[in-house]
Amino acid sequence: MDQKRSAGTVVDMVSGRFHRQGMAGLVCAAALLATTLGLAPGAPGASGASSAPPTLPQLVADIAASASSFTSPNFERTIPPLGTTGSLEAQPSPARTACFRQPATFSSLPANLAETCGYGDLAASRTILMWGDSHAAMFASAIDVMGQLLHWHVIAMSMSKCAPWLDPNSVDYFGGSTTDCNRFRSAVIAYANRTHPAAIWPIGLDGYYGRNRFPTASQLATEMARLFAAVRPSRSRIVLIGATPFWPKDPQLCLAAEPNPVKCERSPAALTRANVEAGFTIAASAARIALNDVTPLFCTRSKCPLFVKGPDATRLVFMDQNHIYREYSMWIGAALGQIVGPHL
Asked: Do residues 293 and 59 touch, judged by C-beta distance below 8 A?
């Protein structure tokens, strides 16, 4: 285990401070984590992230300041530079193809899943099983950092275009078979019910509901209820997060063409898919599961900026209409932990 130890095992000396001292402990742990990962303050590391991940209040303040900016940054010096082509699944680097899959590539889960797809604090006694579609993959880097800070062993998996919710259709939006996706879902559910992780964390959008169709709020809530029932034998706590902003067009195109970045911004309400929010709310309420709002990781109450200026660097947020960059995902890990941590 030593040669595969997560950086989270190095912050054991401050983990108690987080529970006893709240914010001060998290700041200390985040700073030590940054040092452990080789991220010197003010200097981007090899992974593209830099310095300590901000706490939630710090991140909220940075987002608010950035949303009021009428001047674009030097996009050649942002993290990453504008125009950088990212993998659709912004999973932690280096990529693990056995854990983060493309459609129609599933055969079986890795034999030693906890190690092969293990993130966070690999020495921790508490385990989170996280899986879903490409949105699960894009959050994996944040959850990796969160797991290191809060001392959770994270098992992370995804399959693109395969939301975790159990839809009843034999074909997807594009007319392709859902057989491979259903096999992936079934394998993950069976693993959860067999190993009993402390928490399970399905992440995904609404998915599809047959060819050229998306589910209604009621249909999505039913799909989610079917999943909750399927994992009941695991006796695991279920963690849910709300949907992330969904842009009508690739926001990078606007940034590249518009010198005033404010003109590219939209309100959170304008970037919300009503069926997704309503379906999540119905399902969570019926199952008495907390639905964690992650909007503060990206937006103020009125604006969603496309870049966030931190104390050390400016980071681009969205790499396409509905996925964030890996670098931004890593940077929000501590803040995500403050939102989700109380419900773990």
From this structure: no
- Whole-number Å distance between alpha carbons of 200 and 184: 16
| pLDDT per position as a tens digit, 189-241 | 999 999 999 999 999 988 888 898 999 999 999 999 999 999 999 999 999 99
230-248: b or e for each residue (b if 16 or more CB lie within 10 Å)?
bbeebebebbbbebbbebe
Q: Are 299 and 317 in contact (CB under 8 A)?
A: no
The residues near 84 (Cβ < 8 Å, ≥ 6 apart) are 316, 319, 325
Give the C-alpha separation, 291 to 287, whole Å: 10
CATH at residue 265: 3.40.50.1110
**Which residue range is the domain that position 110 belongs to?**
2-54+62-343
Give the count of beta carbons closer than 10 Å to the beta carbon of residue 117: 22
Q: How many domains does the chain have?
A: 1
Q: Rounded distance, CA 202 to CA 305, Å? A: 27
Tokens in use for 191? 């693993």
Residue with tokens 């079934």: 186
Q: Are 51 and 334 in contact (CB under 8 A)?
A: no
Q: Give which of 23, 57, 79 is closest to 308, Cα–Cα.
A: 79
The first and second tokens of residue 208, run together, are: 């599809």
Torsion region of 275: left, alpha or beta (phi above 0 gives left; psi -120 to 50 gives alpha): alpha
Question: Strand, helix or coil at 203?
Answer: strand
At 29 the pLDDT is 52
Across the chain, where does the E strand assignment appear? 100-101, 118-120, 127-132, 153-156, 158-159, 199-203, 237-238, 240-241, 291-292, 307-309, 314-316
C-alpha 271/C-alpha 95 separation (Å) is 29
